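This entry is listed as follows:

___
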Amino acid sequence: MTHEHDPFLQAREFFLDNIFPGRARVRASRRPIARPAFLTKSFVLSFLCATVWFVTAFCGLRQWRSATPWSQLDVFSVTLLALLLVWSVATALFHREMFQSREIMLEASGMNFDKLMFFWIDVFAAAEVLVFFDYGQWHLVPQLREPYLQIPGLALCIAGTVWLIWTDIYLSRQFRGGLSDRRMMNHGPYHFVRHPRYAGLIISSIAFALAMSSVIAWALAIGWIWVNVRRVELEENHLRGLFGAEYDRYAARTARFFPGVY
C-alpha cells in the first residue's frame, strides 16, 4: 500500500500538518495545491475547542471535596467519554476531506443551505458539558439513575458510534474528488435511509440521556430531534436542486431516518 492510499499515514500527516503549520508549508511545496491558511486555522480552533470540552467534562465529574474525587468516573461516564473521543477523531478524519477549499467546506458542512447549523452545534455542545456536571455533582433527577436504563443506553451509544463512523466513511468519499464529480449517495448506510448521520445522532442523543441519567440530556435530546428534522427539510430541498428526479426516485423508496417509521 502506498503512502497516498494508507489511511493511517494520511491521518498522521493531516494532524501533524495542522498542528505544525511550518511542516505543512514544507510538504505543500511537493503538492500541486496548498491548503488555505484559514482552513488550517479552522481545524486548529476546532481541536482546541474539543480539548477544552473534554477537560471541562472531566472537571464536572470530579468530586472536589471528597476523599474519592474520581468516584463518578464509572463504567458509564468513562465509556461515554471514550466514545465521544473516538467519534471526535473519526469526525476530524472526515473533516480532512472538507478542509480542501472554502467551497467544499461550505457544501460538506451544509452552510450553503443551513447557516444556523454550526450555531446549534455549538449551543448543544456547550450544553452537553452540563450533563457531566449533573452526573457528577447535581443529580437533578436521581430516579433516572437506574442500571436497567443506563445499560441499554450505553449499548445504544456504542452501536450509534459505530453507525456514525461508518456513515462518515461514506461522507468523506463524497467530497474526496471535489465538487465537480459529486454523485448522489445511495449505497452503504444510505441504502437504508436518506439521512443516516442524522438518524445516528438522534439515536445517540437518546442513548446518551439514558446512560447519563440526566434530565438535562433528555431536554437536549428533544432539542436535537427538532434541529435535525429542521435541517433535513432544508437539505432535501438542496439535494433536489442538485440531483433532480434522481433524488426524487431515491426519496420515494427510502425513509428519512428509520425504515418503515419515518
Notes: The CA atoms of residues 43 and 49 lie 10 Å apart.
